[in-house]
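Standup notes
- HV: blocked on the assembly model, inputs below
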Amino acid sequence: AQSVTQPDIHITVSEGASLELRCNYSYGATPYLFWYVQSPGQGLQLLLKYFSGDTLVQGIKGFEAEFKRSQSSFNLRKPSVHWSDAAEYFCAVAINQAGTALIFGKGTTLSVSS
Amino acid sequence: GAVVSQHPSRVICKSGTSVKIECRSLDFQATTMFWYRQFPKQSLMLMATSNEGSKATYEQGVEKDKFLINHASLTLSTLTVTSAHPEDSSFYICSARERPLPEAFFGQGTRLTVV
């Protein structure tokens, strides 16, 4: 069965420091890959997505992610974290069936210290 | 990106009553909509999938008679929590996809409190 693993439940980063959130997936082929961010009491906002092509994708708010097929990973990065980046981050995959729901990881809570 | 509007954002209802949550796609045709439930500090739990004009497909363990889902048009899906109980209190989020695109767009969520 397909699955998404986010190994880090909670990460604390100093403001201005770099960030990497890990995501691994289990699927026989290359799925469609997404990162979403959720602020408290809000819905999910799409940060970036990977469908094909260049394995380094740029998203909103200065985030980027790199798809590594050999590692079945899609890690999210940001060079310099801002206090407003504190939120819950979810990695998700969609398999090649347009009518199916996304499969989510359990999420990583990002705290930003000053 | 595409916009999904979910209403209301918060609702408080008395135990035993029903409450309806609406999910609208504002600028695209939502051929498929999904309803999730999220417990505090947890990931999203898929409740059901609905395709326009068809009956919803519920995930195992989700009561069809308690959580009524209607997807009558390409821009609107509703979730009705019937005979609500305090344990139904949760954060409910809808999501929509436009076939054949794989990405999903999410509503703002609804905080339901049953007293």
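- HV (later): unblocked. Chain A has one domain: 3-113. Chain A touches chain B at residues 32, 34, 36, 41-46, 49, 51, 90, 92, 94, 96, 98-102, 104-107, 109 (CB under 8 Å).
- Next: hand off to the docking folks.
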